[in-house]
């Protein structure tokens, strides 16, 4: 399953996450649109402290639909400029490498 971005019915502008009003035309009607892929523009390494400290990577992904999404990356080989597939898993968004 892929995450969704939201397309303004009035002006076609796409937003993520969902908003009450379109930032461009102030329209209030949106249509969910599946967003399956994008390109990594930034990578951030984050650390979780606690009983089991761990490090994970977050990618800033410019989706093919337009809006920028933040996704978790499990594959250490993913780099800036890579095309990734976006997937919804365990309530989060993940960016998986696309092998071409
Ligand atoms: Zn609009």
From TrEMBL:
Any Pfam family the entry gives: zf-ChsH2
Domain of life: Bacteria
Domain ChsH2 rubredoxin-like zinc ribbon: 7-31
Protein name listed in UniProt: Rubredoxin
Taxonomic source organism: Alcaligenes nematophilus
């Amino acid at each position: 399953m892929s995450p969704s971005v939201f397309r303004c019915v009035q002006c076609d502008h796409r937003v993520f996450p969902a908003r009450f009003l379109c930032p461009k035309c102030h329209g209030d009607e949106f249509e969910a649109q599946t967003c399956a892929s994008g390109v990594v523009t930034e990578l951030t390494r984050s650390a979780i402290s606690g009983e089991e400290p761990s490090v994970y990577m977050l990618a800033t992904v410019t989706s093919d639909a337009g809006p920028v999404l933040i996704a978790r990356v499990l594959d250490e080989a993913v780099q800036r400029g890579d095309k990734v597939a976006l997937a919804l898993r365990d309530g989060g968004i993940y960016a998986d490498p696309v092998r071409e």
